[in-house]
Specification:
The chain is of the alpha/beta class. It has 2 domains: 20-75, DNA polymerase, domain 1 (Orthogonal Bundle); 80-372, TIM Barrel (Alpha-Beta Barrel). Helices cover 35% and strands 18% of the residues. The chain has 12 helices and 12 strands. It has helices at residues 25-34, 40-51, 65-75, 135-139, 147-162, 193-204, 226-234, 250-256, 265-279, 297-311, 335-347, 368-372, and strands at residues 80-88, 93-100, 105-112, 117-120, 124-126, 141-144, 180-183, 218-222, 240-244, 283-289, 315-321, 351-354. The strands form 2 sheets. A 10-stranded mixed beta sheet has the order 1-2-3-4-7-8-9-10-11-12. The protein has a two-stranded antiparallel ribbon with strand order 5-6. Strand 1 and strand 2 form a beta hairpin. Helix 1 packs across helix 2 (40-51) and helix 7 (226-234) runs parallel beside helix 9. It is globular and about 70 Å long. It starts with 24 loop residues before the first helix and ends with a helix. It is found in: Cytoplasm. Residues 113-361 form the Radical SAM core domain. Pfam families: Radical_SAM, RlmN_N.
Length: 373
C-alpha cells in the first residue's frame, strides 16, 4: 500500500500562545484566577470577544484599566494580521489573506447572499492530502491551526458583517449577520480533529461563551478520513458533513484523492452513513467536475448507484465547476457536459445540483491567494 503523508495531530510547532478562544468556560475562569483576578473577569472577557467581537482593551471599560491591558496581553494575544483583502461579485465576495504570528499564511472567504452570509474558513495552513487539482494540496502542509486561529477567522468576519462593510441585496453597504460557516478553506479539518471540534464548540456555544452560530449552519468538509468521520459522529453534534468524493470509482480516486489508498470509497461511504444515522443530517457529496477526467456519463450513473446504496435519501450531491489554478493541467467541464452529469445523477434517484461559484477573478479557490504571497 502506498505510503501517504497523513497527519492527524501535527506537532505544536509554530502554534501561538494560549488564547481565550482555546479555552473552555471553566478553563477561562481558571486562567483569569492564575493571573490574580476575580473569576468573573473571564465572563467579561468572553463577552467582549464573542459577543462584542472586540480585542481592543480600550473598549473594555467594564474592566479596570490596570487589569484590562494585562488580561488582554495574556489571554487575547494577536493571532491573525490581515495581509490584504480582495473583493468581487459587486463586493459580496471578500477573500482575506491572513498572516499568523509566525509568518504562516492562511485564507478565509466571506460570501454574502440575499438570505445569508457564509464564511469559508481554513483549519490548517496548507494541506497534506496532496489532491493534484487543488491549489492548497499542491503546496503541502505547513502546520495545523490552533483552535483560536480558526475561531478568530469567524470573529473577524462576524465583525465585518455587523459593521456593514459588505453590500446588501440592493448593492449598498449595510449591517448584517454572519449565519453560516463552512470548513472548506485550506486544510483537511479532520486531520486537525481535536482543535477543529473545539473550534466548532466555540463557534456554536451561545454568547458570551461562544459566537452563537447554530450547529446546523456549520459544515465540515473532509476528503474521507473514515475513522475520524465515525469519531465525529460520536460527538453527537448537528453540523453537516461534506465528503469530497470527486469520483465514484476507486481506480481514479486513488489518483485524485490519494487518501483513498487508505480508506477506499466503500469505507468512506459506510462512515458517512454512520454520521447521517447518528446526526439525522443529510450528507453532502462534493464533486469537482474536471474535463475529460471524472465527467463521463457512466461515472454519473455509478455515483448515483453507489450513493443510493449507502446513503439512500440521506445525501445531496454538490457538483462544483472546477476553478483552475494557474499552470494546471486540470480544467472545468463544458456546461453541456455538466448539465448532462447532473441530469443523470438526479435520474438515478439522488438529489444533485451545481454549486454557485464565486470569486474566480480574485483567486478564490482555496490556496490560490496564499500561493501568490
Amino acid at each position: 500500500m502506498k505510503s501517504l503523508p497523513l497527519v492527524f495531530d501535527a506537532p505544536k510547532r509554530g502554534l501561538p500562545p494560549r488564547h481565550l478562544a482555546d479555552l473552555t468556560v471553566a478553563e477561562r475562569a481558571a486562567a483569569v484566577a492564575e493571573l490574580g483576578e476575580k473569576s468573573f473577569r473571564a465572563k467579561q472577557l468572553s463577552n467582549h470577544y464573542f459577543a462584542r467581537l472586540t480585542v481592543d482593551p480600550g473598549a473594555m471599560t467594564d474592566i479596570p484599566a490596570a487589569s484590562r491591558e494585562r488580561l488582554v496581553a495574556e489571554l487575547m494575544p494577536p493571532l491573525l494580521t490581515e495581509v490584504r483583502a480582495v473583493a468581487c461579485d459587486g463586493g459580496t465576495t471578500r477573500k482575506t489573506l491572513w498572516r499568523a504570528h509566525d509568518g504562516t499564511l492562511l485564507e478565509s472567504v466571506l460570501m454574502r447572499y440575499p438570505d445569508r452570509a457564509t464564511l469559508c474558513i481554513s483549519s490548517q495552513a496548507g494541506c497534506g492530502m496532496a489532491c493534484p487539482f487543488c491549489a492548497t494540496g499542491q503546496g503541502g502542509l505547513d502546520r495545523n491551526l490552533s483552535t483560536a486561529e480558526i475561531v478568530d477567522q469567524v470573529r473577524a468576519a462576524a465583525a465585518v458583517m455587523r459593521d456593514g462593510h459588505m453590500p446588501g441585496p440592493d448593492g449598498e453597504p449595510r449591517a448584517g449577520r454572519l449565519s453560516n460557516i463552512v470548513f472548506m478553506g485550506m486544510g483537511e479539518p479532520l486531520a486537525n480533529y481535536r482543535r477543529v471540534v473545539a473550534a466548532i464548540r466555540r463557534i456554536t456555544d451561545p454568547a458570551p461563551n461562544g459566537l452563537g452560530i447554530s450547529q446546523r449552519s456549520v459544515t465540515v468538509s473532509t476528503v474521507g478520513l473514515a475513522p475520524a468521520i465515525r469519531k465525529l459522529a460520536d460527538e453527537r453534534m448537528q453540523v453537516r458533513l461534506a465528503v469530497s468524493l470527486h469520483t465514484p470509482d476507486d481506480e481514479l480516486r486513488d489518483t485524485l484523492v490519494p487518501v483513498n489508498n487508505r480508506w477506499p470509497i466503500e469505507e468512506v461511504l459506510e462512515a458517512a452513513r454512520c454520521y447521517a444515522d447518528t446526526s439525522g443530517r443529510r450528507v453532502s457529496i462534493e464533486y469537482a467536475l474536471i474535463r475529460d477526467v471524472n465527467d463521463q456519463p457512466w461515472r454519473a450513473d455509478l455515483l448515483a448507484k453507489r450513493l443510493r446504496k449507502h446513503l439512500n435519501q440521506l445525501v445531496h450531491v454538490n457538483v462544483i465547476p472546477l476553478n483552475p489554478t494557474p499552470g494546471s493541467e486540470w480544467d472545468a467541464s463544458p456546461k453541456p457536459v455538466e448539465r448532462e452529469f447532473v441530469r443523470r445523477v438526479n435520474a438515478g434517484g439522488v438529489a444533485c445540483t451545481v454549486r454557485d461559484t464565486r470569486g474566480q477573478e480574485i483567486a478564490a479557490a482555496c490556496g490560490q491567494l496564499a500561493a501568490e504571497g
